[in-house]
Amino acid sequence: MDSLSRKRVYLGLLEDAAFFRWMLHPTPALDAHWKEIMQTSPEMKEAIDELKTVLRGMKVQEEGLSAEAQKELWRRIEASVCRKRHTFRLKPLLRYAALFCLLLSAGAYWIFTKNGTPEDSIDYQSLVSDTVLTTGRSGKVTIVLANQEKIEVEETAVELRHDMEGRMSVNSVLIKTDGGKEPAAPSEKQENRLNRLFVPYGKTTHLVMSDGSKVWVNSGSRMIYPSVFAENRREIYVEGEIYLEVARNEQAPFIVKTDLLEIDVLGTSFNVSAYKNDENQSVVLASGALAVKGKKEKTALTIRPNQKYTFEKSANLSGVQEVNVSDYTGWICGFLSLKNEKLSSVLHKVERYYNVRIDCDASLADRISVSGKLDLKENIEETFRIISITAPIEYVIRDNEISIHVKP
Predict the structure, then answer these.
(1) What is the 3-state secondary structure (H, E, C) of 260-284?
(2) What does the mean pLDDT of the chain come to?
(3) What backbone torsions phi and psi does residue 230 show, to the nearest 5 degrees?
(4) 3-state DSSP helix/strand/coil percent for the chain, to nearest 5?
(5) b/e string for 159-188 if b means 16 or more Cβ within 10 A?
(6) d(CA 266, CA 275)
(7) How many beta carbons lie within 10 A of that of residue 310, not counting itself?
(8) What's the mean pLDDT in 201-212?
């Protein structure tokens, strides 16, 4: 690699915020991304190995380098090249570490905070629980905007879209907020620019976010997200079940948080189930790569496509297993795939999807396993007829209440 090409490679890395994020805050997802780059390009591997050593030796504490710092660092790298062997001497570079530390602390700190990395963690659970709603079993899909305006939607299936400026449309109708208020900007304090989405039982929502990422939100779910993401970090919170297709952006990793889990991705498709009253929380990966960590766990687990991460609440344990992804994502198309699943769990899902009350002895339902496929687009009578074929139950349907008797 000649001097000009080498310079382009090095300066390209020095201008890459994702590279500095990897240096400062490595995650399994970022490790996988840069490992793939190094495996496919010997030139990039050479440059990355060199810069990793130099930057870590400099004790860089924030992201980014100013243009002058980049030029000066390149001059030091270029001066250290051994022309005969075309390798780099590391020790001369490390001698100049102190020259950059002051520059980095003064200039790069501004760059880091300007791009919107949250200064304080957000108390998402309080934001969710403090919102007064009329939603319930007979409620409406409700969006509480960052400016506190509340929008309620009657339809069973709802589509929300935010454009790059944060303007929102509901089922293709542009929403104009009272007083012409604009959506909160990324530069505002994070708590002040978060929207809260509440999807009651019996309804679903499809959300397209400002970066192009798509989210399917299942019945009985709550989600917190910004109208417009910050430049270098995308973060949402969920209580319930969602399926995501995340728009890839190496400059801004995507973080999904629940009350127990944190999921770190670059660009991928996956399902998250984190209902408050369920025994477990889970993440199923359809494509891409991501890392999952429980709040009380010290290290994250990396999962691959067709794998499921499960966190058991009672035992405070996590594990990964191979699965058929469609068994966990069919709900977005109105199907529920069951493989030796407890009848009690199946009844909870049916309750949420159809917005009905089911009366059944949970201890008896826990002893029965159900397998098969339910078409949730059918009416409730047909759904229970199918369940009764595979499970030893009798049922009586009265309006929105269903009584289940488990046969001996």
Answers:
(1) CEEEEECCCEEEEEECCCCCEEEEE
(2) 78
(3) -65, 165
(4) 35, 30, 35
(5) ebbbeeebbbebeeeeeebeeeeebbebee
(6) 24
(7) 18
(8) 93
Q: What's the rounded mean pLDDT across residues 53-75?
A: 53
Instruction: Provide the CA 52 distance to its chain's centre, in angstroms.
Output: 28
Q: Is the pLDDT of residue 98 over 60?
A: no
User: Which among 74, 61, 56 is positioned nearest to 13, based on CA atoms?
Assistant: 74
Range 344-368 average pLDDT: 90
Query: What's the angle, vertex CA 377, arms to CA 376 and CA 383, rounded to 5?
Result: 50
Give the Å distances, CA to CA, from 111 to 65, 92, 116, 147, 364.
9, 28, 9, 27, 59
What number of other Cβ atoms are within 10 A of residue 65's Cβ?
Answer: 23
Distance from chain centroid for Cα 110? 26
Predicted local confidence at residue 59, as pLDDT:
45
Strand partners, 262: 257, 293
Angle subtended at Cα 191 by Cα 190 and Cα 196, rounded to the nearest 5 degrees = 115
Predicted local confidence at residue 18, as pLDDT: 67
Higher pLDDT, 388 or 120: 388
State phi, psi for 353 to the nearest 5 degrees.
-70, -40
In angstroms, the CA 206 to CA 385 distance is 29
3-state secondary structure 216-228: EECCCEEEEEECC
pLDDT at residue 121 greater than cutoff 80: no
Q: What is the DSSP string of 274-333?
A: E-TTSSEEEEEEEES-EEEEETT-SS-EEE-TTEEEEEETTTTEEEEEE--THHHHGGGG
